[in-house]
Amino acid sequence: MxxxxxxxxxxxxxxxxxxxxxxxxxxxGTVIHxxxxxxxVTLLPLTTALAVLxxxxxxxxxxxxxxxxxxxxxxxxxxxxxxVSDYSRAQNPSAEMMEASKExxxxxxxxxxxxxxxxQAISDICIQFKLNKIDVLKWRDLV
Length: 143
Fold this sequence. Notes:
One of its GO terms (cellular component) is mitochondrial inner membrane. Keywords: Membrane, Transmembrane, Transmembrane helix. By secondary structure, this protein is mostly helical. It has two domains: 1-85; 92-143, no CATH class. The protein has six helices and four strands. The protein has helices at 15-48, 58-84, 87-91, 93-111, 119-128, 133-142; strands at 2-4, 9-11, 112-113, 116-117. The strands form two sheets. A two-stranded antiparallel sheet has the order 1-2. A hairpin with a 2-residue loop joins strand 3 and strand 4. It is flat.
């Protein structure tokens, strides 16, 4: 249940509709980024041929950058699709989520010092929950 304090209006989101919309976004992103990833990969040999010219090889590096960007976006879309489509968790979320929550609380309690979580605790959390430590640290620094 969410509320807007300025207008006093309360509204609620249906979790099934949100999950369905996220699944649609993830599937669409997977299709789009896979298509553009393969397209970029096929252009790499062609732009490599331009390396013999005495000019800077800007087309090659642009296509290489786009290939990497679509690969990362494809990985993110597939991960989102995996998270949203996990029906075993959707059927009984409370038991698994409570266990994960207890593990996370324990790891946070061990690593909490001076008002923030230390890097060793973040590393342990990333290992436990299969997260990319560099991405987690990047987002921690942004907040």
